[in-house]
Amino acid sequence: MRTRIGISYPRAHVCLDDIVFERRDFAGDNMACRKRRRLSPGIAGKRDFFDVLPDDLVISILYKLSSTAACPSDFANVLIVCKRLNSLAVRPLVLSKASPKMFAIKAKSWSESAHRFLKNCADAGNVEACYTLGMILFYCLENRGSGASLMAKAAISSHAPALYSLAVIQFNGSGGSKNDKDLRAGVALCARAAFLGHIDALRELGHCLQDGYGVRQNVAKGRRFLVQANARELATVLSSAAASNNFTRYWLTWSPHPIPHPNPRRNHRHQAVPGCPLLSDFGCNVPAPEAHPSSKFLAEWFGARGGVPGPGLRLCSHVGCGRPETRKHEFRRCSVCGAVNYCSRACQALDWKLRHKAECAPVERWLDEAGDGGEGNGAVHGNDDVIAES
């Protein structure tokens, strides 16, 4: 096998420091001569084993690194080592199987090079890169067409988060007018994402069946889907690596307050475990689910802009979502207090049990604004959808 610089693997009779060439004279006798390999002045007297490695072996190592990277820096540090690694690390085989955490780019670090890197990964067929870049283009850079196309590309490859995000776009008519809503398409996308194991999609589908939203009403079946979503959430938590720590026994009891750490001196950074009664149907108290890297990027992007995506526009009140409105009154707001709004029923259900249940209270100003004809009466006159708390 030949290597990148054109030499072959050394045979058994070749030492590491010198390369031995065998040749025969005209009489046919063996004449062994030693010829020292020419090395650059910087590595004179040393063997450069990295140059001897074949490209296929280096690409295989980089492939394993990209698929198990825990953060973007794990892979980015490889690109700046040398020209050879920089060229081999951007091969389609390496980029196509990069882990989702490798695309956890901070909003403050967004640049043209980061955009180009995600684009290269998406062109290589990486569905996570397609979804992440699609969300950024659609919501942050307001390039609706390209963003939706990339999310559709990931959805075709059965990427559950992309299917659910497209369902939310169909439910709200995002990027268009209110008449662009397609409830039946949203339900179909939710059903496909739920079949692939997406918990939020299953919860959204359960609410749609309960309310008859885009599908024929079936309260019993909708309730069954909601219970299945809670059961899947519990199974996901218990099967994760976090289930092996000391906090597991506290998850079997309901507590709306943070759980104190059993040994605060040992882990001074984690004095309390944030509790979240998402599984109150089962009497369990589990940590809040970790948001997707694209959702974190959206939250950071608009948080740096004061939490206002545009004039008269609002963000989804669920802290783990980050989706903004693309037009006024796109999201539905709480029918009780009117202080919060959500892009979907799934976000509403999560935020209700996580935070809003303890804060929601009727607001009397709604009645005053309805009588005065102010802008706050959108839900009364039907200009803004309302969402009832459960």
From TrEMBL:
> What organism is listed for this UniProt entry?
Gossypium australe
The residues forming a coiled coil are none
Residue ranges, annotated region (Disordered): 371-390
MYND-type domain mapped to chain residues: 318-360
Query: Sorted alphabetically, which Pfam families does this protein's record hold?
Result: TPR_27, zf-MYND
Which terms are listed as keywords in the entry?
Metal-binding, Zinc, Zinc-finger
Query: From which lineage does this chain's organism come?
Result: Eukaryota, Viridiplantae, Streptophyta, Embryophyta, Tracheophyta
Q: What is this protein called?
A: F-box protein
A GO molecular function assigned to this protein is:
zinc ion binding
